[in-house]
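User: Watch each token:
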Amino acid sequence: MKVTDVMTKSPKVVNPEDPIRQALKLMKEGRFRRLPVVREGKLVGIISDRDLRQAMNTPVLVHERKQDDYVLDNVKVGMCMSSRLHTLSPEDSLEKAARVMKENKVGGCPVVDRGELVGIITESDLLEYLVRSMEAGRLL
């Protein structure tokens, strides 16, 4: 199996100039823990729920607290995203994807083909594949 078989294709993205409120909104709506950050079609970073918690200086993400409105509206995604990326190709094996995530202690990797973001693969995608394979009797 390859990354392309289990990745989320055409993932939701944010721009580095977007306020972190936009990233938080997309994460909550889609129940995502990370979003690729794209500028002019080019992948420039990734922002996670952990990055947002650090920006908000809180262990729990909420966006109903009045005192957080300034931060949510004025801190930009580019200020708190990670630009250190661990990308994969759609043709990479699932074993490689799992190894890259484990070795780099990340929960997901953007998938890039010829310089263009085409998807994202996460721990959840790998676990879902494992469960489906076990149910189908392909794994013992």
Remarks:
- The chain has seven helices and five strands.
- The two ends are 17 Å apart (CA to CA).
